[in-house]
Amino acid sequence: MLKKIVGALLCTLCSANAMAAFQSCYQDIPGSAPDIRFKENGTGTVTDLQTNLVWRRCLLGTRWDQQTQTCEGTPEAYSWKKALFQIDLNEKGAVIDGVSGWRMPNIKELASLREVACLAPAVNLKAFPGLIRTEDEQWAMTATVWSSTPHAQSQTILTFGISDGTVVHYGYQDFEFGVLLVSDNAQ
Question: Which of 44, 110, 129, 166 sits a CA distance of 20 to 30 A from 5?
């Protein structure tokens, strides 16, 4: 009987937030991106109160679902140049939560999102609950996102790993990764 109760409780907890089930956090390391640092703006954005930047909560190719409070759809993977073109053509002027001026973040802005106490993903789940929704997505190419920052000594671009918080550089034509957008137009 006890096994059935414990099993039912575990199923309920896992289905309530499957993402939290595989995010691993160290309790003895102070968090670098606590919940109080982010203000939810309504329909798909959060404001980082530390940097005053507004972030989209979903990767390009997905959209925020207000009812489920997560991202719906399949994230798109882009080469760096195609991502810049897509942003300029379709995203820069889009208005979400009264915010426009969307752009690709630089590597310092992306790295500021890193939650040093957690992995898989290494970002705040309350602010970004839908960036990685399944265990398979944490290893997808879209779990790495492009920055606008070129590497100083090569013709590569710095990227940010949402799953592990790593910063790595890749050839701008050789790989296709995800895109997370930011705006300086905080309300």
Answer: 129
